[in-house]
Amino acid sequence: MLRDQLNSLRPVEDSLAYGQPYETADGTTIITVTRTGGLLRTARPVGAFVVHNGEVSWTPAVDATRIALMGELIGLLAAVIATLAVLRRPPWPDLSRVVAIGRDSRHT
After folding, report:
1. Average pLDDT, whole number, for the chain?
2. pLDDT (tens digit, 9 = 90+) per residue, 51-78?
3. What is the four-CA torsion angle of 53, 54, 60, 62, rounded to 10 degrees?
4. What is the mean pLDDT of residues 70-96?
5. Rounded to 5 degrees, what angle do the CA atoms 25, 16, 22 make?
6. Regarding beta strands 15-18 and 22-23, do their DSSP bridges make them parallel or antiparallel, or are they unpaired?
7. Residue 15: what pLDDT?
8. DSSP H or E segment with residue 60
9. In the 8-state DSSP scheme, what is residue 61?
10. Contact 36, 15 (CB under 8 A)
11. Cα-flanking dihedrals φ and ψ of residue 20, to 5°?
12. Which letter does DSSP use for residue 102 in this model?
């Protein structure tokens, strides 16, 4: 039954959605752009077109939370890898081996 429901789901393609133009007091027009898609049809901001004095510019949306989270995950991964490297082969000398220094093999 679950397999039939999963097979009945058709893939959802990503698509761009453009917002209503918004005009500011100084005559600048802003048109927002979002990307919709995924299984839950979530919308994620992509950026905005800004029209000012007849010139169009693109301003990308920056998700600072996502960038900070990625930095934290990279730091955590680096700490785990460094810890595993130290535990696998410590940087200090191996003192478990006994080395006979200065012994003469004839006096045994």
Report:
1. 81
2. 999 899 999 998 889 899 999 999 999 9
3. 20
4. 85
5. 10
6. unpaired
7. 80
8. strand 55-60
9. -
10. yes
11. -70, 140
12. S
What gap in Å lies between CA 34 and CA 41, rounded to an integer?
12
CA 72, CA 64: separation in Å to the nearest integer? Answer: 12
Give, in order, the Cα–Cα distances in Å from 62 to each of 48, 58, 66, 78, 90: 11, 13, 9, 25, 42
- The Cα–Cα gap between 14 and 34 comes to 10
* Share of residues in the chain with pLDDT > 70 (%): 69
How far apart, in Å, are the Cα atoms of 49 and each of 10, 22, 33, 74?
Answer: 32, 11, 8, 32
pLDDT of residue 50: 93
Is the full-model pTM beyond 0.85? no
Query: What DSSP line would sit under 21-32, residue for residue?
Result: PEE-TTS-EEEE
